[in-house]
Amino acid sequence: MQKEIIFFLKEMNSRVMEYSSPVRERSRKMKKLREMRNPLKYVQGRDALLSFCKETGYMGKKYLFICSHSAYEACHEKLEKSFEGSDKIRHYEIFGGISSESEIAKMRKIVQENSIDTVVGVGGGSAVDTAKATAFYEKKQIVIIPTVVATDAPCTGLSVIYHDDGSFKEYLFYPTNPDCVLVDSTVIAHAPVRFLIAGMGDALGTYFEGRASLRTESPSLENAGIPGAGMVLAKYCYENLKKFGEAAIVACENHVVTKALDNIIEACVYLSGVGADNVNVAAAHSFYNGLTSLGGHSAPHGNCVAFGTLVQLCLEGVKKEEFEEVQDFCVAVGLPITMAELGNFSDADLHTIAKNACIPGETIHNLAGDVTETELYDAIIAADALGKKNRTAFVKRGKHNKVKHNKVKHKKLKHNIVKILSIGEKAEIE
């Protein structure tokens, strides 16, 4: 796993290496052009899949849908209904489980043999990454249909590629973002709520990592100057998480689409994805990279990023009020505020995490100053200690850790959603 991280950093963070301390001064004198990237089209809403053909009909006649098993079951019927009365040709293919070299080669062959015009990725990260790579190599248009919102990957212009044995190969960067991202809110509402929570964790870091990167004049993920619009999206993402996160969980638990859920889906997929793509990541994602260097772990990516955000805030020495605000949010939606909630880690493990998160080229160096292994270790300990200390305070303030979610009866749904919305927000059951 250590080799994987090093390779990733050589591939992606060669972009960041030139912004380490000695060179950062030079980069300030040679400003990079600001650049804003996003999907050409973003479509979201209740039963949006029924409009798939209408929204993508201009992309050609022949479609290849690369689907996971669960995504095929969740989306096939609606997709076919969208094509009623059309002469469009559809080819559905269940992919092999990971975005591997041979899997991509298999899909490329299907594209060639069937003269496919548009590739569609349906499902989670691996199916989406396979579709992106296939479309890129075959020079075809690409549409993304996420069936979970555990990460903000659907809107970004990159894929994670693996060798056939499952080991990491490379991060593949594309010249453009997807041609279209279409999100059916009903599909997301019926997905396990843990994916929604993880997505909020990944989205939580967007504003704070972007803010840190802007302060140090670091480049965006696309190696361009950070545009103001990117930061606006990142800030709006955070604001929506705070306003609608709890209510969205209740809606997802009950498999219904509400305004709150729609707002959180947009925050996790579009605002976070486009925001991060056009700003950058920092310590929160470096913490995740350091954690993965230990090998197997059960915590979702977004959960790790959420705690990593708290670690970053400790590194930055933010005001108590801001730190507690982020803590409050994490507790309210079931994201971790202690290391124990991510797994069982020894002190030696924490030192390893800190060491690998601080290797040259890591995005943690987008923070002001060069963060050392010792400084990061101390910040991890501090964030963990504050989480342990404040857990009791949260209970006293009437807050709950919603890691375990129980369904409520539908007749109580509206009452519950109204109850947990922020003051001044009006619940709407669509």
Low-confidence stretches: 1-29, 402-430
Looking at the structure, the CATH topology of the largest domain is Dehydroquinate synthase-like, alpha domain
Distance between the termini: 45 Å
Strands ordered across the widest β-sheet: 1-8-5-4-2-3
Number of helices: 17
Q: Count every beta strand, where a strand is a DSSP E run of 2 or more residues.
A: 8
Q: Classify the helix fraction into a percent range.
A: 40-55%
Total tally of structural domains:
2
Share in β-strands: 5-15%
Structure description:
The chain has 430 residues and is α/β, with parallel strands linked by helices. It has two domains: 42-189, Rossmann fold (3-Layer(aba) Sandwich), CATH 3.40.50.1970; 192-396, Up-down Bundle (Dehydroquinate synthase-like, alpha domain). Helices cover 53% and strands 10% of the residues. It is built from 17 helices and eight strands. It has helices at 2-12, 14-17, 21-29, 52-56, 69-82, 101-113, 125-138, 185-189, 193-215, 228-253, 259-278, 283-292, 301-316, 320-333, 347-357, 373-396, 413-420, and strands spanning 42-45, 62-67, 89-94, 118-123, 141-146, 158-162, 168-173, 180-184. The strands form two sheets. It has a six-stranded parallel beta sheet with strand order 1-8-5-4-2-3. Strands 6-7 form a two-stranded antiparallel ribbon. Strand 2 (62-67), helix 5 and strand 3 (89-94) form a beta-alpha-beta unit. Helix 9 (193-215) packs parallel to helix 11 (259-278) and helix 10 (228-253) packs antiparallel against helix 11 (259-278). The longest helix is centred in the middle third of the chain and has 26 residues, at 228-253. The chain is globular.
